[in-house]
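fyi for ur records
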Amino acid sequence: MFAEWSFLPFFIGNVTLAILVTPIFNNARGSLLLPMLFHWQLINPFWPDAQPWDTWILVAVAVLVVWWKRDVMFSRQGAVTEVIPGEMRSTPAIY
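which gave:
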């Protein structure tokens, strides 16, 4: 199915999805449920031949999201930065 894609549309699609999933992940406070549902929804392409035409629509959506949320997309404010929330950070011992 994806074997007919060239590398550039595939790469652009992956970067676009990473940009779109970031605010979903951060607004979900690090929960994977909403990003997983978003990804699951995108497994079903808009066009059944699975050509990357829907990638260009998602690129336009990503550009709009970045422009609309530019104050938080380009800062760490509100970002989830801990892999395991609530876990105590310990400094590694130097021997």
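The first helix runs from residue 7 to 27. thats all i got for now
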